[in-house]
Q: What sequence folds into this?
């Protein structure tokens, strides 16, 4: 007993000492380190490394891509940026957080900035910018919600799947009612018209509600993003939220029991879902027997347009010793051809305007709907450092209405007051 | 007769409880044999279409260097468990059988470590690890985890039950305190040591947050990080996640069964106390 | 002060022994000091500072304490956490005790190992994987629980989707995860109880229940206290399961203190506020633990 315990002690000490050595690669290749938490797009991420090998021939620097799990990525990013020497050179994140709330981003060189200003679609003009200056390259184009409909369910309900509803309070609501099949025994409906998002953090719920808000002409914050009262609780917003809540509570065309809206749609329990362009890839894999079509979102007073709450951007770390090379690499991949190749690899929409009419994009089910949505007016954006907290406070009002905790006006008044407190803090 | 009936009912209750507790694993295992569309299927179907569908497992290994993750987890957990047992039993002995000034204060201070939410300490801890040059290394992953607060607690409780007469007898025989530790104390608390080993091993094996923050290179990742590669911002790939989860539990199960046997043996061999 | 001097320079046999005791404890203390002291101090320091946009740090004294401790969202999270605690801690401890006692009576070692392994398995799973599996079992439409309940004629429940059912549902997951841990501790302790204590009780003509009450439980007192303290601490700090499933929803019904802390620190970028919450958690847990430790520990004659 004694010898084994003593030897365990020695083993412990030796192990700790010995394993302080990091794993060393034989040759130390110069490289740019890139961090991304877009773990649902492995091919997209790998492309940077592949391009990096080409880049190395010119500059001697390869690109190493590190995929951070989405769960907990903020903590990892923050920890790395706050300690010296372990931060990445390039990283993927939201501009208003890492450049606005913190000061971790390097400004984009003027020539590159001009290139992007000329080649991005108008709704993406603000993505990657903070306070008028551009810091990074937007990477996602299909970031806005569109309407997916189950064509079989439409036909069964006597609706024409090729002629989608266009007005929320008009033909859309009527269609939802036709598509909802109540349970004869009085339980949850067997089938609902609209797959509503009711689970998860309030930020996500705000994101899903915003098209409704924008369609009623409402906005969450003032144009200067400095005031919430009068905007988050405007009469238009109240009307929009009341309509939204009624879908669940009055018209009963949406149900809170159906869990994930994606699952509900995939299981043919819901006929319509508002989701971004990555969704048809998911459908193909998980519910290949669902026949669907993609259309632009319905309108009300105005059309919701292509809006994004989360502007994912490739950024350069301000204190990186390699930032000049990093910008060189960004220049290296900033052209229409690479943009096309990059996004096509993963099956997502390219970012450059020039690529929006390519054969690849034309072959996608959301080609026409994307064009329609882009033709609509650009909705408000809320790229503010405190956007997470503001959207959370707002989301609480939305959730409250959905779950019948209160009426739209008082809940929105509370939310607006809370948002103002957050803004002032 | 009544005794036998009671025992039978007891065993049945234990068995039923065990199966209820086990059920989610059965569910997990069964799901890992289904394809993604099968999982979405409504109405619910318990059995997979094909009981021998190991495609998910193949995909897990194809997508991620999962064997490497398992190895890393094994290394990290073993070091943490071994170190914990040694340091915790030393500390447990000190707390249990000696009265030195500040004893209760230090004990509560050690338990206090558990009371600090790790999330509020993670950034300063990371900066500190960076200063020590331990980022992305085994030492870095294991550093905050080397001594178990629970271990100190457990060992103290276990050692307290050892009758003081044994210790005094050994002292009269002229043994040094350290010798007493190895020859009297440790043999008497084998079940607790085995318990601590198993629990600490599992605890370290399932750590996610700190290993995620401190590692960046794929070859240093541990199993829990590997599991999250099958979830992302938008959706969860249940078919792959369950397969990976099953893979990550199997090694622990093996260790648990092996150590269980040792616990039993230890109790039997050390004879009844008294 | 003199005590410390005597510790370093013992003058007699008794004091030398005290020093040895301290030396046994020293490795653990040194370890914790080396790893945690600096980060802990910094974390507390953060609670007095505010991060302005742009990253600059401003000293604000106790303002953040006032802000957090008067925030209804914070107290809502505390109340949710307390409710979860009240549901999961007693359940876990009592069930674990019952299971350990039952396992201890099973004479066949093989079967005891089999059942014990099954109880212990949840602890072997990563919290994230466990939570995701349970989320799926709790699914209102295609989850197994409602499916099974439908055979008993019960209508489907919304579980994690329901404002009131979400907390018991999460508490049940916590019990499931931790029961094996506590069972193992109790079982190990039970197996260390010398046979003669039971024999003495039998000779006095004690029934099974009397034996439980007067012999077994008092001897397990130390373990019960330890388990209660640990369960309280772990359940108060509940995070992974909630984060992976409901993320505090629906509508904040399952938001716990640590979840709020995490969001405040990393999603809202308010480190100072988060540090205040951390201090609150620490102080609360310390007070509760000290109370449990002092009041419920009964010295037992060996």
A:
């Amino acid at each position: 007993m004694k010898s084994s315990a003593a030897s365990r002690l020695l083993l412990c000490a030796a192990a700790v000492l010995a394993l302080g050595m990091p794993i060393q690669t034989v040759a130390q290749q110069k490289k740019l380190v890139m961090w991304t938490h877009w773990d649902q797009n492995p091919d997209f991420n790998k492309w940077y490394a592949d391009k990096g090998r080409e880049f190395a021939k010119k500059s001697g620097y390869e690109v190493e891509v590190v995929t951070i799990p989405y769960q907990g990525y903020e903590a990892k990013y923050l920890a790395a940026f706050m300690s010296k020497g372990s931060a990445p050179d390039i990283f993927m994140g939201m501009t208003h957080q890492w450049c606005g709330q913190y000061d971790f981003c390097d400004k984009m060189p003027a020539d590159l900035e001009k290139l992007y200003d000329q080649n991005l679609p108008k709704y993406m003009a603000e993505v990657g910018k903070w306070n008028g200056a551009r810091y990074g390259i937007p990477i996602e184009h299909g970031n806005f919600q569109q309407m997916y409909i189950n064509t079989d369910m439409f036909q069964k309900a006597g609706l024409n799947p090729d002629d989608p509803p266009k007005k929320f309070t008009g033909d859309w609501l009527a269609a939802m009612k036709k598509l909802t099949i109540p349970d004869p025994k009085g339980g949850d409906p067997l089938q609902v018209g609209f797959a509503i998002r009711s689970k998860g953090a309030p930020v996500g719920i705000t994101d899903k509600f915003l098209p409704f808000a924008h369609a009623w002409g409402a906005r969450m914050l003032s144009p200067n993003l400095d005031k919430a009262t009068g905007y988050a609780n405007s009469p238009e917003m109240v009307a929009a939220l009341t309509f939204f809540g009624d879908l669940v509570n009055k018209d009963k065309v949406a149900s809170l029991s159906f869990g994930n809206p994606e699952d509900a749609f995939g299981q043919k329990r819901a006929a319509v879902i508002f989701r971004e362009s990555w969704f048809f890839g998911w459908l193909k894999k998980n519910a290949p027997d669902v026949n669907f079509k993609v259309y632009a979102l319905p309108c009300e007073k105005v059309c919701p347009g292509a809006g994004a709450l989360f502007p994912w951007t490739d950024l350069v770390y301000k204190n990186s010793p390699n930032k000049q090379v990093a910008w060189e690499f960004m220049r290296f991949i900033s052209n229409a051809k690479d943009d096309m190749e990059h996004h096509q690899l993963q099956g997502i929409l390219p970012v450059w305007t020039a690529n929006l009419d390519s054969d690849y994009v034309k072959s996608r089910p959301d080609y026409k709907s994307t064009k329609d949505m882009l033709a609509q007016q650009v909705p408000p954006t809320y790229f503010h450092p405190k956007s997470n907290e503001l959207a959370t406070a707002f989301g609480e009002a939305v959730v409250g209405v959905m779950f019948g905790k209160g009426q739209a006006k008082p809940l929105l008044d509370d939310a607006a007051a809370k948002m103002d407190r957050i803004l002032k803090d | 007769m009544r005794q036998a009936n009671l025992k039978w009912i007891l065993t049945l209750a234990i068995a039923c409880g065990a199966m209820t507790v086990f059920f989610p694993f059965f569910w997990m295992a069964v799901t890992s044999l289904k394809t993604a569309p099968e999982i979405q299927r409504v109405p619910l179907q318990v059995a997979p279409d094909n009981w021998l569908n190991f495609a998910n497992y193949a995909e897990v290994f194809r997508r991620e260097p999962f064997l490497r993750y398992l190895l890393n987890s094994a290394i990290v957990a073993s070091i943490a468990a071994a170190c914990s047992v040694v340091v915790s039993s030393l500390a447990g002995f000190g707390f249990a059988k000696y009265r030195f000034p500040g004893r209760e204060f230090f004990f509560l201070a050690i338990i206090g470590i558990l009371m600090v939410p790790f999330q509020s300490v993670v950034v300063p801890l990371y900066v500190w690890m960076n200063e020590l040059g331990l980022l992305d290394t085994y030492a870095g992953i294991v550093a905050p985890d080397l001594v178990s607060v629970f271990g100190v607690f457990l060992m103290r409780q276990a050692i307290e039950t050892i009758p003081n007469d044994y210790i005094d007898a050994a002292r009269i025989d002229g043994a040094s305190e350290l010798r007493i530790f190895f020859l009297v104390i440790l043999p008497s608390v084998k079940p607790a040591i085995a318990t601590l080993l198993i629990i600490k091993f599992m605890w370290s094996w399932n750590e996610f947050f700190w290993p995620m923050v401190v590692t960046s290179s794929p070859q240093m990742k541990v199993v829990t990080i590997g599991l999250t590669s099958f979830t992302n911002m938008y959706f969860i790939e249940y078919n792959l996640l369950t397969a990976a989860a099953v893979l990550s539990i199997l090694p622990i199960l093996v260790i648990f069964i092996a150590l269980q046997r040792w616990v039993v043996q230890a109790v039997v061999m050390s004879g009844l106390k008294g | 002060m003199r005590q410390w001097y005597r510790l370093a320079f013992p003058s007699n046999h008794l004091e030398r022994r005290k020093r040895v005791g301290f030396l046994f404890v020293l490795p653990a203390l040194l370890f914790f000091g080396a790893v945690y002291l600096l980060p802990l101090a910094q974390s507390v320091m953060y609670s007095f500072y505010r991060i302005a946009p742009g990253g600059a740090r401003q000293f604000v004294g106790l303002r953040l304490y006032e802000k957090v401790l008067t925030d209804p969202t914070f107290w809502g999270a505390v109340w949710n956490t307390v409710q979860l605690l009240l549901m999961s801690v007693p359940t876990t401890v009592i069930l674990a005790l019952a299971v350990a006692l039952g396992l201890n009576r099973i004479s066949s070692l093989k079967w005891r190992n089999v059942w014990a392994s099954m109880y212990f398995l949840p602890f072997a799973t990563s919290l994230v994987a466990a939570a995701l599996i349970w989320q799926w079992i709790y699914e209102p439409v295609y989850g197994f629980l409602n499916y099974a309940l439908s055979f008993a004629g019960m209508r489907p429940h919304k579980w994690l989707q329901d404002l009131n059912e979400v907390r018991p549902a999460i508490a049940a997951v916590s019990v499931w995860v931790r029961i094996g841990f506590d069972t193992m501790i109790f079982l190990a302790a039970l197996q260390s109880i010398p046979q003669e204590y039971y024999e003495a009780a039998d000779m006095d003509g004690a029934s099974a229940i009397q034996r439980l009450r007067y012999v077994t439980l008092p001897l397990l007192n130390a373990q019960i206290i330890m388990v209660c303290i640990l369960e309280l601490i772990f359940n108060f700090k509940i995070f992974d399961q909630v984060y992976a499933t409901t993320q505090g929803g629906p509508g904040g019904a399952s938001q716990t203190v640590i979840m709020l802390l995490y969001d405040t620190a990393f999603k809202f970028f308010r480190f100072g506020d988060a540090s205040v919450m951390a201090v609150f958690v620490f102080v609360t847990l310390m007070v509760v633990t000290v109370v449990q430790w002092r009041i419920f520990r009964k010295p037992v004659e060996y």
Observations:
- Chain B has one domain: 65-272.
- Confidence is low (pLDDT under 50) at residues 270-274 of chain B.
- Chain B touches chain C through 107 residues (CB under 8 Å).
- The two ends of chain B are 32 Å apart (CA to CA).
